[in-house]
Design goal:
Length: about 120
């Protein structure tokens, strides 16, 4: 077995695929109304599937609010420059930053993702 992709639920598959393609410096490999895909330069794919009842997740979690059940971790060489790039792509910096070598950001649908320097 080989893990090939992760699928993220969203109200806007095209918007998220375009966002992550800009972030990763690639182009979407599929752009449909209900499903879109970005294949990362290393080969793993991130799929975006329309969820008709999607509600923006909250991170860190709060009682009674939709929980962010997954997030993407993206390794970077220069954390400051990568964070600036992500913000220029449309990400939002999270108010909570739990680790010095990690920056938590939100994509346009509110899913958290982490940039990290090992």
């Amino acid at each position: 077995m080989r893990l090939n992709a992760v699928t993220v639920g969203t109200a806007r598959p095209r918007v998220l695929a375009q966002f992550y393609a800009r972030l990763l410096g690639t182009v979407p490999s599929a752009l449909e109304d209900d499903w879109a895909q970005v294949r990362a330069p290393a080969g793993m794919a991130v799929n975006f599937e329309r969820e008709r009842e999607f509600r923006r997740p909250v991170w860190p979690s709060e009682p009674g609010r939709p929980v962010a059940t997954q997030h993407l971790d993206i390794e970077v060489q220069d954390l400051r420059a990568a964070t600036e790039h992500a913000l220029a792509c449309g990400a939002v910096l999270a108010g909570v930053q739990p680790q010095e070598n990690v920056r938590v950001l939100f994509d346009p649908d509110g899913h958290p993702f982490c940039l990290f320097h090992d």
